[in-house]
Structure formats: structure tokens, C-alpha cells
Amino acid sequence: MEKLPKEVSEKRKTEHEIHPLILGRWSPRAMAGEEISDEELMPLFEAARWAPSSYNNQPWRFIYAKRNSADWQKFLELMGDFNKGWAKNAAVLVVVVSSKDFEHNGKPSRTHNFDTGAAWENLAIEGTRRGLAVHGMEGFDYEKARIALEIPADYDVECMIAIGKKGRKEDLPKEIQEMEAPSARKPLKDIIMEGKFRK
Ligand SMILES: Cc1cc2nc3c(=O)[nH]c(=O)nc-3n(C[C@H](O)[C@H](O)[C@H](O)COP(=O)(O)O)c2cc1C
Asked: Domains of the chain: which residue ranges?
């Protein structure tokens, strides 16, 4: 994405000029209900792979299911009804988990959640560049995911991601349609502080 789509430029104003891909990433819920190939999917994981992490520990792991696969229903059933209502039209559902300990010495990593957050954003940015809808979710049963996907205790369950071909807003459940737009952000002055913390 070199140029911002109109739906984004109409809704999002920056205080300073930034790359259109960063501003152009948002979280659509309208997905087409079609499959995507590995050629389309794997570059998103590749982008995640190149995120920075403390000691280059790369704590992120991505467990995924493709629609029409044997695992799909198991992943779909992890979600609450709201998310299930639209994410059922995704092509791929992902559960992101993060290793709590460093590989090189077995000691706890203070920043593994932070590192894995960076990897998720890389994935979302690459998906956006490729015209896919990428949407993070916390509305699912974390304990059920641990059991159903056999996630060991030394990994945190972080979030789910729905990835899919973009669909039509009109095909979303009525109550979700009005939410289908890029959102705004707090002003820059509210999130930066020079010298010390200020509320
Ligand atoms: C970790 C995480 C969890 C989220 N959980 C949900 C969710 O369960 N359901 C949902 O519809 N959106 C969810 N979202 C989407 C956020 O609401 C969205 O990212 C936020 O409103 C900012 O909008 P934007 O991504 O379009 O810029 C989640 C996003 C993140 C990063």
C-alpha cells in the first residue's frame, strides 16, 4: 500500500506525516468466507518472524487453522458469540502464544509479551500491504484454548487473529456494520511525556 485508501484518509488524520501502511492498517470485520493459499498466508508469518525481541529470543508462536480444515471448528468454538458472528468468514484463525522464559538460560523474560506484540503488528502490517483483513481478538476462552490446542504452561496465550479476504460491510450482522470503519486515536500530547510521567 503506497497510497491511503479513501476510507482511511477520510477518517484518520495524523499530526505528522507517517508511512501510509502504518496509518492504513485497521481491523475490518467484513471477510469474504473464502480460503487463502499458503502463498498468501505464509508472508504474514514471515513478517512476524522479523520482529525485534529481547536477546533475540523470538518468544512468539502462531498456531493456526485454515477454513475447511479439520481444525477449523475447534478454533472457531474458542470464540465468544460476538467474534464468532463475523470471524466465521475468515480464511485463517490464529492463536498467538508467547514463551515466558529465555531459551538461552531458562530464566523468566520480562518482555516476552511486549516482543510478541511487536510480532503481531508486523503480521498485521504485512497482511494490510497484501490487501487482506487482519483482526486481533481477545474475545475468546483462554483456558479452553490452552487445553484444546495443548499449549504448555510455560507459554502465555496472548490473542487470536482472524485473517481473511475482505468482504462486504453489508453482509455483516446489522449491529456490527456501523463499527466497520477505521478508528481515531488519542492526540499525541496525551501519550508522550518529556522527562517524567504525567497524567
Ligand atoms: C489484542 C487485541 C484484542 C482485540 N480483541 C478484539 C475482539 O475480541 N473483538 C473485536 O471485534 N476486536 C478486537 N480487537 C480490535 C480492536 O478493537 C481494534 O484494534 C481497536 O479498536 C483499534 O482499531 P483498529 O485496529 O481498526 O485501528 C482487538 C485488538 C487487539 C490488538
From this structure: 28-169
Chain centroid to Cα 153, Å, comes to 22
What is the number of the ligand 1 atom nearest to the C-alpha of 86? 11
Cα atoms found within 13 Å of the Cα of residue 197, Cβ hemisphere only: 1
| Ligand 1: nearest atom to the Cα of 124 | 25
Per the structure block, which three cell numbers stand in for 195? 522527562
Distance separating the N- and C-terminal Cα atoms of the chain: 36
Question: What's the pTM?
Answer: 0.97
Name the closest-CA residue to atom 3, ligand 1.
Answer: 137
- Is the beta carbon of 117 within 6 A of some atom in ligand 1? no
Q: How far is the CA of 108 from the centre of ligand 1 (A)?
A: 28
Nearest alpha carbon to residue 134 among 163, 94, 166: 163
- Domain 28-169 class, CATH top level: alpha beta
Grid cell, residue 153, equals 504452561
Question: From the first residue on, what is the mean pLDDT of each consecutive set of 10 residues in the chain (199 residues)?
Answer: 85 96 97 98 98 98 98 98 97 99 98 98 98 98 98 98 98 93 97 96
Q: Which residues contact 102 (CB under 8 A, 6 or more apart)?
A: 55, 57, 108, 109
- pLDDT confidence of residue 3: 81
Ligand 1 near 183 CB (within 6 A):
yes
Determine the pLDDT at residue 47: 99
